[in-house]
Specification:
The complex is a heterodimer. By secondary structure, chain A is α/β, with parallel strands linked by helices. Chain A has seven helices and ten strands. In chain A, strands 6-7-8-3-9-10 form a six-stranded mixed beta sheet, with helices on both faces. In chain A, helix 3 (96-105) packs across helix 4 and helix 3 runs parallel beside helix 5 (140-152). The two termini of chain A are 17 Å apart. Chain B is rod-shaped. The chains are: A alpha/beta, B alpha+beta. The A-B interface holds A 49, 51, 71-72, 74-75, 78-79, 83, 89, 91, 93-95, 97-98, 102-103, 105-108, 111-112, 115, 117, 120-121, 123-124, 126, 128-129, 131-132, 150, 152, 154-155, 171, 175, 179, 182-183, 186 and B 1-6, 8-9, 11-12, 14-15, 17, 23, 26-28, 30-31, 33, 35, 220-221, 223-232, 234, 322, 325. Bound molecules: adenosine-5'-diphosphate and magnesium ion.
């Protein structure tokens, strides 16, 4: 589903942030990507999303070499991936409902065809009373849940989440982790970047990919 | 899948949905993905309005001149004149009578008007100055022919007939004059068209700048749209929607002003026509009123301003996005 072979990355002319990364993410797998702040977790997720190009090495996504993809193919692959960004990246001028529905809207689906689905998901993440609110009036935790809902709405084959519980109280964090686990059980591969040890302890069965000093160590 | 998850849900309490009535509408309304406020909208509308106004003036002026020149030319072409020069040993008065007889007999001549001696002198006065004693001068006499429209006489044949009997007669069919008028009007139309093209190019460049600025201002949004799986075409279309709306608004304002301008000038020309100066203006610019065809052209220019604005911004956005990555 996803594999890195000897991938290295540097920003500009700086030193390598990521060095010789080689790992795979199998279909229907669940892993935490962890490491101290600044270790390169967000950078690694950007590589997967093809919003950064590796300085060297090869990244394969859904069986395709990422370096050889045409633009339309990049778009197709992104539609199979759900992402929760660390900084949420909600669109400030859209209501929460429209933000969550955005991935469906951009593939040309009619509003009527997805309304029930989106409302259900919003209810599930506890945002049913904030449907028409703009992101600027939401708390950090609410934005985070909206970002999670937006990533889940397309039922992605691969879910990437960058510190998805960073702004949530432990109870809500646990509930959302359970949502990710359910998603995994229904067939999605899940990668959660986090430095929250308590969160990882909640799901011992997960693989752990640990970034330290630019290198990756895998614990099955 | 989500339904299955919902079935398992334990801890969430759903709030009462008392707000359901207006909510339906609120959800169905799709906010434009490119925010309305993110484009320098008002300035763009004003610039496009001005450009449309100027383009419509240029087009309208070209149409007026072209129409007027058709009028002049057909009017001038409906006339010809014969000059009888006084020469030694010939009686001008009897030559005039003989020439008139030939001309009246010719087919295609509707009317013959002989300028009397006094009238001929009056025609020459502006060139020779007043107070001259024309009796001393061998002033030529003029005969003006009105020709039948659509059935011009064979002027070459007529010229030959005149020459046989009257060596001092010269037939002028005004062709040179007509040609020169045509060239002048043609040049005016070319200049107006050139101005029109320049305005369109300037408007295009303005839209290009505005589009690039809008893309820079909305870079964050473009990035998010890409990451949630929007295709370049889709994103370009979102920009196009906003720009079409702005372009149409500008086009309507500019086109409306141009129409008002021509209506007003047509009205004023009507008022002036009664005065002596009005005759001259009318001779130069025709009636100064544009007619339904002209207004249709202006309406088309207004609509084209909106559509072109939208089309251009879409293409620019699309190309810029392609170049990205
Ligand atoms: N756009 C960038 N340009 C230069 N350096 C960057 C950029 N983004 C991140 N970095 C650097 O790369 C390193 C890894 O950052 P990041 O991937 O955000 O780590 P993490 O998500 O694990 O906290 C940090 O040292 C950070 O300063
Ligand atoms: Mg990070």
């Amino acid at each position: 589903m996803l594999s890195f072979e000897d991938v290295g990355l540097r920003y500009g002319t700086g030193s390598e942030i990521l060095t010789d990364l080689s790992f795979t993410v199998e279909p229907r797998s669940f892993q935490f990507l962890t490491g101290p702040s600044g270790a390169g977790k967000t950078t690694l997720l950007k590589l997967v999303l093809m919003s950064l190009e590796p300085t060297r090495g090869r990244i394969t996504l859904f069986g395709r070499d990422a370096a050889t993809l045409q633009k339309d193919e990049v778009t197709d692959i992104r539609r199979r991936i759900g992402v929760v960004f660390q900084d949420f990246r909600l669109l400030d001028h859209l209501s929460l409902y429209e933000n969550v529905a955005l991935p469906l809207r951009v593939i040309g689906r009619d509003e009527g065809s997805y309304r029930a689905e989106v409302l259900e998901l919003l209810r599930w993440v506890g945002l049913e009373t904030r449907i028409t609110a703009l992101p600027s009036v939401l708390s950090g935790g609410e934005k985070q849940r909206a970002a999670i809902a937006r990533a889940l709405i397309v039922r992605p084959e691969l879910l990437l989440a960058d510190e998805p519980t960073g702004n949530l109280d432990p109870t809500l964090a646990r509930r959302l982790l359970r949502l990710f686990v359910e998603l995994h059980k229904s067939g999605t591969s899940v990668v959660i970047a986090t430095h929250d040890l308590a969160l990882m302890d909640q799901y011992e069965a997960a693989r752990r990919l640990v970034l330290a000093d630019g290198r990756l160590h895998v614990f099955e | 899948m989500i339904r299955a998850l919902l079935a398992r849900r334990t801890t969430v309490e759903t709030k009462d949905e008392a707000t359901a009535v207006p909510l339906d509408e609120a959800l169905a309304r799709e906010t434009p993905l490119v925010p309305t406020t993110s484009i320098a909208g008002r300035s763009l509308v004003i610039v496009i309005a001005i450009m449309t106004f100027l383009a419509a003036l240029a087009a309208g002026a070209a149409l007026l001149v072209a129409d007027a020149s058709v009028d002049w030319r057909s009017e001038v072409a409906r006339e010809a004149s014969v000059q009888i020069r006084p020469v030694a040993g010939r009686d001008v008065e009897s030559d005039v009578v003989r020439a008139t007889a030939i001309l009246v007999a010719a087919e295609g001549v509707r009317d013959v008007k002989i300028y009397t001696r006094a009238e001929s002198e009056a025609l020459l006065a502006p060139w020779l100055g007043q107070g001259l004693d024309f009796a001393e001068l061998p002033a030529p006499r003029m005969i003006v022919l009105k020709l039948v429209e659509g059935k011009r006489p064979d002027l070459a044949q007529l010229r030959r007939e005149l020459a046989e009997q009257l060596p001092n007669a010269a037939l002028d069919d005004h062709r040179l004059w007509v040609e020169r008028l045509g060239q002048m009007a043609g040049a005016a139309v070319v200049v107006a068209s050139l101005i029109f093209v320049l305005i369109v190019v300037a408007a295009g460049l303005t839209v290009a700048f505005a589009t690039r600025a809008a893309m820079v201002g909305n870079r964050e949004i473009i990035e998010v749209l890409h990451l949630v799986g929007a295709a370049d075409r889709y994103i370009a279309r979102q920009f196009q929607r906003r720009f079409v709306a702005l372009g149409l608004r500008g086009g309507l304002i500019g086109g409306g002003c141009a129409m008002a301008f021509f209506l007003l000038s047509g009205y004023l020309a009507d008022q002036w026509r009664a005065t002596p100066g009005g005759d001259q203006i009318e001779a130069m610019f025709g009636s100064l009123s544009l007619g339904p065809r002209g207004f249709a052209v202006i309406a088309a220019i207004s609509a084209a301003a909106g559509l072109l604005t939208g089309f251009m911004s879409q293409e620019i956005v699309f190309r810029q996005l392609r170049r990205l990555q």
